[in-house]
Amino acid sequence: TRAIVARAPGKLFVAGEYAVVSPGEPSVLIAVDRYLTVSLSESVDAGSIHSPEYSRMPVRWTRGQDGLTLDREHHPYDYVIAAIEVSERLRAERGLRPRFFDLFIESGLDDPSGRKFGLGSSAAVTVATIAAIDRFYGFDLGTRGRYELAMLATIAVAPHASGGDVAASTYGGWIGYRSPDRDRLRAARAEHGVAPVLGSDAWRGTEITRLAPPAGLDLLVGWTGHPASTERLVSGVSRGTDVADGAHTGFLDASRACVEDLWRALAASPPGTTPPRAASDDALALDAIRRNRRLLQALGARTGVTIETDRLRILCDAAEAIGAAAKPSGAGGGDCGIVLAPAGADVAGMLRVWETNDIRHLTIGVHPPEGEH
Ligand code: MEV
To answer: Which of the four pLDDT bands, split at 50, 70 and 90, describes residue 220?
Structure first.
């Protein structure tokens, strides 16, 4: 039998980080044209997971009474295993005959020496694994169903993850995203199972909106060379946040205001048209990114977490100095910064500053939206 091959793109956050962790708060993300690939082939009495990048040791999984049984306790495959687990639950609930499979993972989201750029490899491996199993069992989940199943897997591993990266990796293109209430989802899954949760009211508040790329602005990505731990940064910010003192509400309100402005500036155009954009749209987008950067700086200062590291500051300042807008992408603390540069800006000058400061320009494009490949 032929292997099933599924690939999922990486992502970059454009705006709304940290705020988007609160259900219903808006963010903007893009899917990028770098990919993680999962190949699936049927096996006989046990499954296995292989990846040159993740681990040299394959993980074997079998099926026990209460879910999957693994041949060792600690493994770098949490997201893959969660994706298999949630799919197995769905398979059982749909009354399909159980089968085993081997998974081979290949990530194009890291640099050649294996260092992570911070392009969302956890989300991409989850989305690609779900896509492969969807085809293997013929679940016929569709785009939204694959997002939902990947999201259930994700929150089994990272309970507070917004899932913006999962949505971007599933839908492609530029998206506006508001997260579901993950506590409600977990409760609904525990009470009803996986199949009844898909497409149910437990997702209310979730929004995934296609946005149009800013016509007059170029997107550039700089890599600091320092991998960051999203989990450590997010828990640091949450520890440093006193929800009662009003400062956090202020942050959420201000983030919402600037992300909704960006959202308006990137409002999706009617299908099939290439709208000539008003210059003011781009001005609004640039202003929104700059405001979002300042909000994240203040959030970091208030919570004692270094979101904007020295190198991210140099990266962003060099962009602002040429009339562009820039900010850390994602949790900060390293990884990448994104820049939106207006036509005619001295991008070469900015890149020279980056180079002097060991900031690498990643030539990354946007992965087209689902259905436009
Ligand atoms: C990290 O990639 C982005 C955060 O908003 C966390 C999340 O969305 O889960 C900081």
So the answer is: very high
What confidence tier does 339 reach under pLDDT thresholds 50, 70, 90? Answer: very high
pLDDT at 74 > cutoff 60: no
CA neighbor of 28 nearest in space, from 231, 292, 305, 304: 292
Most ligand 1 atoms within 8 A of CB, residue of 162, 166, 259 to mutate: 162
What is the distance between the alpha carbons of residues 329 and 351, in angstroms, rounded to a whole number? Answer: 18
Q: Looking at ligand 1, which atom is closest to the CA of residue 17?
A: 5
Query: What angle do helix axes 164-171 and 121-137 make, rounded to 10 degrees?
Result: 50
CATH number assigned to the domain with residue range 4-210, chosen from the 4 options 3.40.50.10490, 3.30.230.10, 3.40.50.960, 3.30.565.10: 3.30.230.10
- Asked if this assembly's ipTM is beyond 0.90, the reply is yes
- Specify the fold of 214-362: Alpha-Beta Plaits (3.30.70)
Could you tell me the pLDDT band of residue 199, with boundaries at 50, 70 and 90?
A: very high
Q: What are 322's two structure tokens?
A: 């040429």
Q: Which atom of ligand 1 is nearest to the CA of 18?
A: 5
Q: What is the mean pLDDT of residues 192-216?
A: 95
- 306 pLDDT above the threshold of 70: yes
| Torsions phi, psi for 48 (to 5 deg) | -150, 160
All structural domains of the chain with their residue ranges? 4-210, 214-362
Q: Which of 11, 12, 14, 17 to mutate to test the pocket of ligand 1 (most atoms within 8 A of CB)?
A: 17
